[in-house]
Amino acid sequence: MHHMQSTGRRRPVLLGNPEIRAWRDGAVWHVDAATPLGPVPRRWTDPLVDGAAAHPERTLVARRGPDGGWIRIGYADMLRRARHIGQALLDRGLSAERPLAILSGNDLEHYQLALGAAYAGIPYAPISPAYSLVATDYGKLGDLIGQLTPGAVYVADGARFAPALDAVLPPDAELIVGGGTYAGRAATRFGSLLDTPVRDVDTVNAAVGPDTILKFLFTSGSTKKPKAVVTTHGMLVANQQMLLQTFAFLAEEPPVLVDWLPWNHCFGGSHNVGIALYNGGTLYLDDGKPTPQDFGQTLDNLREIAPTVYFNVPKGFEMLTEALERDAALRATFFARVKLFFCAGAGLSQAAWDRLDAVALAHCGESIRIMTGLGMTETAPSSTFGTGDVVRAGYVGVPAPGCRVKLVPVGGKFEARFAGPHVMPGYWRAPDLTAEAFDEEGYYRTGDALRFYDPARPELGFVFDGRIAEDFKLSSGTFVSVGPLRARVISQGAPYVMDAVVTGLNRETVGLLVFPRMEHCRALACLPADADTAQVLASPAVRSMFARLLDGLNAGASGSSTRIERLLPLVEPPSIDHRELTDKGSINQAAVLARRAVLIDDLYEDRADLAIRAGAGGPRTTT
After folding, report:
1. What domains can be seen in the chain, in order of their start residue?
2. Under 8 Å CB-to-CB from 231, ≥6 apart: which residues?
3. Is there a contact between 85 and 193 (Cβ–Cβ < 8 Å)?
4. What is the arithmetic mean of pLDDT over 331-357?
5. pTM of the model
């Protein structure tokens, strides 16, 4: 979650500013929100029940149908559907030991199944559809299914998911399909669940409480298999109350979201879905994505639906800015009532934010604030927010109401540790991993490093200082702080750099593996669309650009830990099969380093053909 300084006036937005307590116990800092957390519901489905009574016809969720119109489900209708689906799942004997696995992406059936399961106190697990539809190796999907032992599995289309189902569908799990035909086994049609007569589901719902498991969310995993984070009803309602007390404007009018972010991640599936439901709002499902082939759908949606708050990853904001610059009709709708931007997944470059800010200033006469913060799957997800006057890159703010923060010295930095009602009880069926995740006082060890924005005024909050596990030592014993260095590469390399991985563990110098944005590199090289990646990256214009980037990065280097001696643009994109990439678009640094170890050896032994070396008078290349 990242922000760059904006200029000019900011559109007024009502934010909560929690009072902070900060004190030191030896070398350890405690920074807590003194502002108490307000009352929260007992169950995640209580806002649905309340909404069905208060505004029964208001649209809760909508998605475009085959004719291009919006298929809408209102609050009262959704409650009716959730009760029937919940009863159907109860009748099938589903439970935490035999939960519901949802392999498909964001759709209306997925949403109904999630709320139906939640109403009946049955955990569900949204699993990235990329593991079924993009991956060529179903080993990772099999790992996840093995951890869950689901009693039922849902897929949107039986035919499309057939290869994955053939590989991993448990023999005793019922298959539920939204459409299509699966030849491997008899399947239950989703629509038939809605015909189930309601009997005892309301009684079961009344017994659901804060400690009842709502869902399992999988971490991205690195060289180890992903962990299933236990997410309870209490965690999610507490976190949404934290968000409401932070984004106080959500209480002023029902929020409207247009959102594509995947529900198997906490940002899309807990944070964004939750904001709409908890605050009586409306969620429009965006079937677009920030890719050249899919972003047109996002733009069509934003020309028609004006969001009150907008969420995306850096690439999405970059593509949106380009469209806003040239499309007056899009600007008119998009800026009509948006009060806040929220970016997550990776750092956004200064150049990208300057462009977005310029468009907002030109159209609105004022900037739109972007919220900063820190969150993770294990904390449901949000823990800190930048609600005050500090607006700068890397600033993640102060603890949200109800959150307690402990900063513990680790490896020359302060590790952030969180406690509060939004923190997970542990990882599913992994007691050893759970024990490792918490310290002796019950604080969750995040592995993220924070430092004070102003050490003399700890109440001003924190600046993100990288992932402690990603930091390493050179052979000289000098520590390399990966997070800030990587953020500089992405920012200064815009728009040609998608992401970067820092190398140099136990070596003499720092290096970079760079994942390029190929559409921009191809345009720079003036090569046709069918030119292969290696040809583009070998072009003089692209090599010169990366050489200038390397020299620019080194211009402010203060020593071996910040000077980058070599850079290698990668021909092969990040692989989801090998856990290098999440479907939200973020890079798994550890997985890249492990998988491309031979390539890193080649980089340091001057055997990598496309490598660029730093040096006075221009780059020396190994070609």
Report:
1. 20-41+236-466 (3.40.50.12780), 75-208 (3.40.50.980), 471-621 (3.30.300.30)
2. 213, 214, 215, 216, 217, 270, 377, 380, 424
3. yes
4. 83
5. 0.87
